[in-house]
Design brief:
The chain is mainly α and 82 residues long. The chain is built from 4 helices and no strands.
């Protein structure tokens, strides 16, 4: 649970690096996705690791879309991918 909260917080920090007019959309998108997966069994590490990797990869895609330096996601990479 702690790791999921750290990932969520870090993704929201990355949203703040996006253009101002896109932030509300992506903040809502992030929240909805984390809420959708709240029923995942915390003991199912395989599923959780896959979700964390997807969160990281999707974050990179969005950062790249808005030409934000991908190094901004280094902390998220540490959390998600070890």
């Amino acid at each position: 649970m702690q790791k999921a909260l750290r990932v969520y917080g870090e993704v929201l920090r990355l949203v703040r690096r996006l253009p101002v007019d896109t932030r509300p959309y992506y903040a809502k998108y992030v929240r909805e996705n984390f809420v959708n997966y709240r029923e995942v069994d915390v003991n199912d590490t395989t599923s959780l690791d896959e979700l964390f990797r997807r969160a990281y990869n999707h974050s990179l895609w969005v950062l790249n879309k808005y030409l934000v330096d991908q190094s901004a996601a280094n902390k998220l990479k540490e959390i998600c991918c070890g």
